[in-house]
Q: What sequence folds into this?
């Protein structure tokens, strides 16, 4: 769910530097929790059968921690930066460092599935099942190196538009989203009217 604000306490404490403009919080599907719960149950049964209580006391809390840690993919856009976080990982990029941003289809073949993945071209993906589209952006770090990132979102187009608008406002470049299909015909028809107006003046 993405909205102008309504951030969780975690996001306010760890993902907030400036005024929040847009946030996206994608949750793992139900089968992820079912899978991790099944693994925990099987581990508990196996440990009990082998009388390995110390192992059980170590594995179950660790499994619960991993389940919760990777259960959400968070994106927070402020008037200063774009922060992506999946688990303990993800970039935190100043708007002035962003070079390009667009919404596109997420390709499982390109990235090799979901999670934290790296494509052959060096693009890092932070993705969860359930979202067919993602936001791809590139940025230049303090050392001058260019990085490419893809992050899935249930509202990828709105997120990309918000990033471009915030980036334009922060840098003064006037960056805007590409024109919609409704805008294109109007621009294309204008040149065809010019010859008609010219003939009228000749008459």
A:
């Amino acid at each position: 769910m993405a909205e102008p604000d309504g951030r969780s306490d975690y996001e306010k404490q760890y993902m907030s530097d400036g005024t929040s403009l847009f946030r996206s919080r994608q949750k793992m599907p139900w089968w992820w929790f079912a899978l991790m719960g099944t693994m925990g149950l099987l581990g508990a049964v196996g440990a009990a059968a082998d009388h390995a209580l110390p192992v059980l006391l170590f594995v179950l809390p660790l499994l619960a921690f991993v389940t919760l840690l990777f259960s959400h993919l968070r994106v927070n856009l402020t008037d200063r930066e774009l922060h992506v976080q999946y688990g303990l990982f993800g970039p935190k990029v100043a708007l002035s460092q962003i070079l390009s941003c667009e919404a596109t289809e997420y390709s499982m073949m390109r990235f090799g599935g979901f999670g934290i993945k790296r494509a052959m071209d060096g693009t890092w993906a932070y993705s969860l099942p359930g979202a067919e589209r993602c936001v791809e952006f590139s940025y230049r770090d303090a050392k001058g190196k260019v990085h490419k990132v893809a992050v899935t979102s249930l509202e990828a187009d709105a997120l990309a538009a918000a990033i471009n608008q915030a980036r334009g406002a922060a840098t003064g470049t006037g960056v805007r989203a590409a024109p919609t299909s409704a805008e294109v015909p109007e621009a294309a028809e204008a040149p065809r009217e010019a010859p008609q107006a010219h003939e009228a003046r000749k008459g």
